[in-house]
Amino acid sequence: MPLRRNLFATVIAIGSILGAGASAGQFSAANAASNAPKVISTATLPAMIGAPTKVNATAAKFNVSPTKITWQWFIGTAAVKGATKSSFTTSSNNLDKKLSVQETAIFKGGKKLVAKSNLVVVGKITLSGTALLAYTDNTNTALKLTLPTLPAGATATYSWLGDGLVIDGETSDTLQIDARYASLNLTAKAKISLPQFRDSTVGSTAVSVAGPSTNGNEVLWQDNFDGAVGTSPSAADWHSVIGNGFAENLKGWGNHEREYYVADANKIVSTDTGVGGDSSALQISANKIDEGLYHCWYPDLADDDLGCRFTSGKISTAGKISFLYGHLEARVRLNSGVDPTNSAIASTNGMWPAFWTLGSDQAQHAWPNCGEIDIMETNGQQTDNLWGTLHYPGTPSYMGGITAVPGGAFKGWHTYALDWKPNHIEFSVDGIVYKIIDAQDINGLWEFNKPHYAMFNLAVGGYFVGDPKLADIAVGGNMQVDYIKYSKLDGYGTLIRSTN
Ligand SMILES: [Ca+2]
Q1: Angle between helices 2-19 and 24-34 (to 10 degrees)
Q2: CATH, domain range 219-497
Q3: What is the longest distance spanned by two Cα atoms in the chain?
Q4: Does the pLDDT value for residue 193 go beyond 50?
């Protein structure tokens, strides 16, 4: 502003001089000065330049016509040899480099003016404006990322992040908000793609989703397995998994397991469940059978393919109940079988019991992309040990903890539990937490901010137990479950019943 005021003052001064009868010489001098060559508008390049492509520079404008114009293109500060026209064809070698052009005008009398263009990074997509992340309405049920206007032909690919970590499977511009995202800071990104350009990423600011409205720990669901003795667990909540993995194209469920799962292996029994117990339990029994009944992956002795030598059981809430966050626990007793060569000798060889979950989106995200939570896994070869493990897509693809079960996993009743919140998992046995895993700890996708379903099973043989020979596997062991209980955890926890 001060400069402008000065110019105005100068004009007034000249006018005053003229008004006062200035000489013709003074007038001519002023006129000549205004006709000196000057740049009215400089040479310009388009705001976005791809590669390969032909770029036409817009010529500079001068107040008087030059007698000659020359051009020189630059990559960075280096003049490009032979690039002396008003157009330039980029190549992929120019990507990410600064392109500019310099226009030189020579005027009558020899005066030379140089007009430099703007610098443009080749292959860079530039957007005018920022992305906006906002709820689509005042009920806060969906967030939408709205992008600035994209260049013609550009496409956007969306991704969503919770506390900075990618939310698997969410690729639309809109995210439905539900209990999965409680307490998370959500952000969205859009990758902008355009032929001849580098991909560009546009991010949003964060929106914080509210946490639970209470901090309660109430029980949401419990099964005491107290139906009539000899019956199957409630069909409203459970189904028996059948087979050896054949139908699923998995050899022994992908683990070289030797059992064939039958529904008859899963029964309500009357048993000693200890102090305060209800004398009822689910019992999953492993039994040795003669070959010739069921298809298994391993060769049989009679030269047909009905080679399975063991039956056992697996029950699952898949398609019936799913769990999202909260506290999930089961009280379990593992009972040894006997040595295959001497029934007087107890043996746990080859027994592989588990209490675990898989992501309920397994049909769309095959393992390990669905995520797996092994709340309890133990092993007939190392009967004091307990494993609590997460499996997920990543490298490595699992993380977990190992601890000693108080008194031994195959001795007495123990409570195995999962404490589960957004981005946070704790494993415990008999109330003692032995492993905590946060989403930030793993090098992979966190597949645990979504519903999972629960399972109990007693596998026989397989890699986890050292792939023992058939002739060495214990006979007649079982897994008993007094109850399974699902509670809220500090307000987190949603029981989801399938409407199928
Ligand atoms: Ca019970």
Answers
A1: 150
A2: 2.60.120.200
A3: 133
A4: yes
Q: How far is the CA of 495 from the centre of ligand 1 (A)?
A: 21
- Indicate the class that CATH gives domain 37-121: mainly beta
Cα(89) to centroid(ligand 1), Å: 78
Amino acid at residue number 355: F
Cα 257 to Cα 214: distance, rounded to the nearest angstrom = 44
Task: Name the segment(s) of the chain with CATH classification 2.60.120.200.
Answer: 219-497
Cα-to-centroid distance, 404 and ligand 1 (Å):
25
Q: Please state, rounded to an integer, the average pLDDT across all residues of the chain.
A: 92
**Distance in angstroms (rounded) separating the CA atoms of residues 420 and 448:** 9
Residue 395 Cα to ligand 1 middle (Å): 40
pLDDT per residue over 122-149, tens digit each? 999 999 889 999 999 999 999 999 999 9
pTM: 0.86
- Parts of the chain belonging to CATH 2.60.40: 37-121, 132-208
Q: Is CATH 3.40.1000 what the domain over 132-208 is classified as, yes or no?
A: no
Q: What pLDDT sits at residue 268? A: 98
Query: How many Å lie between the centroid of ligand 1 and the Cα of residue 309?
Result: 30
